[in-house]
Write a structure and sequence with these properties.
By secondary structure, this protein is mainly alpha-helical. The chain is 58% helix and 5% strand. InterPro entries: Cyt_P450, Cyt_P450_E_grp-I, Cyt_P450_sf, Cytochrome_P450_fam2.
């Protein structure tokens, strides 16, 4: 696990150097200065205790090992139901047990209603201008109310005018497409993706696409590529200082 993490970090640093045009010495000086500034200027927060095994920059990533769920269970027995894990350079508070979870998510739901600040998602979605990653508050409630009303108008409801008929129709198309494989072993992942997409297209545009439509396949492939690229960039969420590296 440690070798995999080190390899991942090394490869990411190599790509950053190649893109930005910095040499290794300049990059290390920049990182050292930034980390020092973070430790000096970062405000102290009243967080639950940290388990042992935290190291600079990587935090508890090495200590979590190949089975993080087992390590978190062991830390619960040692540190209690609430403790803090350092994921890279970000703090994550871990809740265990019914009482702790209910206290946070039910009894104090207003305080824990917002999603965590994920830099990559915010950069892609406009830093709070969306619904998924917007902070809880009056603006979020207004957007949610508007989105719910629109979705109901488009068919996301029970009873007359719902999209149930569209789903049944698309399920029939999907069944016929799978039947064309004549019981031969086949990967139907793309067909299922088209089925889901066609239900959405029926809601928004009033039309559906054929399962062999080349234009639709190109669009689907482009979405997959974008999701893969976004996933590869998640290192920025673990090591926020990389957002300040040129380019």
């Amino acid at each position: 696990m440690a070798a995999a993490i080190v390899g991942w970090v090394t490869e990411s640093v190599r790509e950053i150097l190649q893109i930005s045009g910095l040499n290794l010495q300049s990059f290390l000086v920049f990182c050292a200065a930034f980390i020092l500034a973070c430790f000096i200027l970062k405000p102290r927060r009243n967080l639950p205790p940290y388990p042992a095994g935290r190291v600079p920059v990587l935090g508890h990533l090495l200590a979590l090992g190949r089975a993080p769920h087992l390590k978190l269970t062991a830390w619960r027995r040692q540190y209690g139901d609430v403790f803090t894990v350092r994921m890279g350079m970000e703090d994550v508070v871990v809740l265990n047990g019914y009482t702790a979870v209910k206290d946070a998510l039910v009894d104090r739901s207003e305080l824990f209603a917002s999603r965590p600040a994920v830099y990559l998602a915010n950069a892609m979605l406009g830093f709070g201008k969306d619904i998924d990653f917007a902070r809880w508050g009056p603006e979020f409630r207004q957007r949610k109310k508007f989105a719910t009303a629109v979705l109901k108008k488009l068919g996301m409801k029970i009873g007359t005018g719902s999209i149930e008929e569209k789903i049944r129709e698309e399920a029939s198309y999907l069944r016929n497409t799978i039947a064309e494989y004549n019981e031969n072993p086949s990967d139907i992942a793309y067909d299922v993706t088209v089925a889901f997409a066609n239900v959405i297209c029926s809601m928004l545009m009033g039309k559906r696409y054929d399962y062999r439509d080349e234009t639709f396949r190109e669009l689907a492939d482009a979405v997959f590529v974008a999701m893969a690229e976004a996933g590869a960039g998640q290192i920025i969420d673990v090591f926020p200082l990389l957002r300040f590296v040129p380019v």
